[in-house]
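Hey Z.,

So I finally got round to the beta-D-fucofuranose thing we talked about over coffee. Here's the setup:
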Amino acid sequence: MKKSCGKKYGFLTAVILAALGSTGCTGGSREAVQTEAENENIVIGFSEVGAESDWRVANTESMRNTFTEEKGYELMFNDAKQKQENQISAIRNYILQAVDYIVFAPAVEEGWDEVLQEAKDAGIPVIIMDRMINTEDESLFTAWEGSDFYAEGVTAMEWLEEYLEEQGRADEEISILHVKGTVGATSQIGRTEGLENGVAAHENWEIAACLEGEYTQAKTYEVVAEYLETDTDIDVIYCENDNSAFGAIQALEEAGISYGVDGDVIIISFDATEAGLTACMNGQINLDVECNPLNGPRVEMIIQQLENGETPEKYSYVDETYFVPEDLTEDLIASREY
Ligand code: GYE
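And the result:
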C-alpha cells in the first residue's frame, strides 16, 4: 500500500514515545528511539456515533469487515456512545497518533471546526460518512459520503399521500405524531424537513406533537407511551428509524391501539434493516424507507482514490428505495446484507 514516509514515521514515533511515556522512560532523544521498522498498513482512526440502533450496528460491522488486516488496513475504533465530546477526544487522539486517515460519523452537525482544523494542520485527511457537519470551511474535510435524508423524508410523504388516496382518505383530517431521531443529526434534520414540507403541502394534515425518540426503542417507547396517556386520536406515527418504530409499536400494543396494515395507526419508519423489514412484511410497519448502512466499501473507495493520488468526489450519495409489505418476502430479506 502506498503511504507517505513522513506519516509512517510520525505514527511510529508517536507509538514509541507513548510506550516510553508509559514505562516512565522519557529521557531518550527522539532520534535515539526511532527504528527502521515500518507499519505497512494504512492506519484509519474511526469514530462511530455509538450503538443506538440496528442500523448503527450494521454500519460498524461494515467498517470492520472492510478495513481488515488481510487487506492491509489497521482500523482503530472508537464508540462515542452518542456523545460529540467523545468523538472530539477520539479525533484528537488519532491526530496525536498520526493515523493516515480519520473517518467519522458525526453525532450532530454543529461544532466540528476546531478539531477538524487540528486534523488539517496535522495533514491528516478527514472522511465524513453517514451524517454531515455544518461548516463554512469545506476544506476541513476531504470527502463525505452517505444518504440523502431529506429525499428519504420526501419519499415517505409522497407514499403517504398516495396511500391515503387509495384508502379513500385523501380529504380526511390526518393527525401525525412525529418521533424525532437524535436532535441535531443530519438524518434527523433531513427526515424532519421532509415531513414538515409534506405536512405544509396538505391543508388537512397536521403534526399532533413532536417527541424526541433519540433513535432508540427504549426512549421512543417511553415518550410515545406517555403521549398516549393524553391523546390516542392519531392516524400516523412518523418514526425516524426502525428501532424507534419498535418503541412506538410497543407503546401502542400496551395502550391497546391497533396499528399497521390492518390497524388504526399507520407506522412510517426509516432504515429498512432486517428487523424493520420483517415487521413491515408482517404488516406492523406500513412503510420502511431504506437507508443504506454499508458505508465501509464506500469509504474504502475514497481512501483508495486518495492512495492513488486521485481526487474523490466531495459529496457522494447512495441510491435508496423503500419497502411496503407487498414487496417483501423472507427470501428477499435474507438476501440483504443488513
Ligand atoms: O437512521 C439510525 C441511526 O444517521 C442514518 O442513525 C443514521 C441514523 C439511522 O441510529 O438508525
